[in-house]
Amino acid sequence: MQESRACFEAMFFCRRKGKMSRSLKKNKIVKIRSLKETKKYGVAATNLKELFKKGSKLLQVPLDGSRICLYEDGTELTEEYFQSLPDNTELVLLSMDERWTGFISDISRLLDTDRNSGPLIDAAKQLLFDEQSPRRRKLLGDLLLHIKDNSETENRSDDEDWFKGVDVRFKTKSAYMRYNCESRIRGYMKEVGSYAQTIQKPKLKDQYKKIAECLVMRLKFDKYNGCYFNRIEKEQQRLCTKEGWFTCQGAFDQNECKSLHSINPYGNRESRILFSTWNLDHRIEKKRTVLPALVEALHNQKNSEISLDYFYKMLFTRENLKLVHIVCHKKGAHDLLCDQKKIYQTGKRKVLC
């Protein structure tokens, strides 16, 4: 009898001790969200089962088949893993058919978001206002720059902010961007013309000026290659996509931009202004190489005619021009030379123009 009573007391004590230990078990506080919302909620739970119940009710996610993952990398939680988590760990509650691969999923969703989303812009502005870290402020500033995208508009009346500071004669974005490119090419032609002042021999200078006049005539016929910046031109003639996105083509000695620079000056006024810092860079340098080669060719020509087409391409076309971000623009000597086989065209001498 005494043994039975002792056994009963031992069992009662163990059960009571278990209940006490469970009641004394510390709550773990986590931050949890659903896949469809970015707002996080603080939840306290002693075990994973309790977290599932509370999270499902709070986030309106069906409990059956649901899973909880780490926000950071998408690792699915087990009870043992849950108990090892530090407080305030960020988690995502998923329904049966949902997937989460970590914070990269948020980036993917951001890229798919309507770029004119007011709430997204407002949220980024608020984060920028509250942020103190210079690095994070720079990242948020860049995000705001590109998320304010009105590239689908074309007319002045549809995006008046884009046209602030732009002459009133321009009624469309494409017309202004075409003019922008033409102005750069005109600037190159002006340099070509002024180079004549460096030539000492009168006869050679006259020959050079005739060549320059022919180049001007060719440029006028080609409308100063303004098509390069005009998104409504044919694909093979423009440097941008039909939406207006330009991609850096990399430094003169590289096949591509390693930093993946891109910009859409059609999107907003800030990008339009920033695009002015991008360069149409001559791979074979204009004043250091191409123009001296032209003068030397004029000086040495005998029975062969100067290839006007070759020098035109080297000075004013994509055959020798690369659009580059200011960071990719190398200002030192390029050490590239003109192709001696293309400078002259053999045969009878013809009219230059």
Structure notes:
This protein has 3 domains: 2-105, Ubiquitin-like (UB roll); 113-147, no CATH class; 173-345, no CATH class. 43% of the residues lie in helices and 11% in strands. It contains 12 helices and 10 strands. It has helices at 2-24, 48-59, 79-84, 104-112, 118-130, 134-147, 173-194, 202-221, 269-274, 286-300, 308-316, 340-343, and strands at residues 28-34, 41-45, 67-70, 89-94, 246-247, 262-263, 279-282, 305-306, 321-324, 344-345. Helix 5 (118-130) packs antiparallel against helix 6. Residues 19-23 have low confidence and may be disordered.
Keywords:
12 helices, two-stranded antiparallel sheet, four-stranded mixed β-sheet, single chain, Ubiquitin-like (UB roll), 353 residues, 11% strand, alpha+beta
Domain tally:
3
User: What is the succession of H and E elements?
Assistant: HEEHEHEHHHHHEEHEHEHEHE
Fraction in beta strands: 5-15%
Rounded radius of gyration (Å): 34 Å
Helix content: 40-55%
Largest beta sheet: strand ordering? 2-1-4-3
What class would the helix/strand composition place it in?
alpha+beta
Characterize the largest beta sheet: strand count, sense, and whether it forms a barrel: 4 strands, mixed
Mean pLDDT: 85
Write the SSE topology.
Elements: H1 2-24, E1 28-34, E2 41-45, H2 48-59, E3 67-70, H3 79-84, E4 89-94, H4 104-112, H5 118-130, H6 134-147, H7 173-194, H8 202-221, E5 246-247, E6 262-263, H9 269-274, E7 279-282, H10 286-300, E8 305-306, H11 308-316, E9 321-324, H12 340-343, E10 344-345
Parallel strand pairs: 1-4
Antiparallel strand pairs: 1-2, 3-4, 5-6, 7-9, 8-10
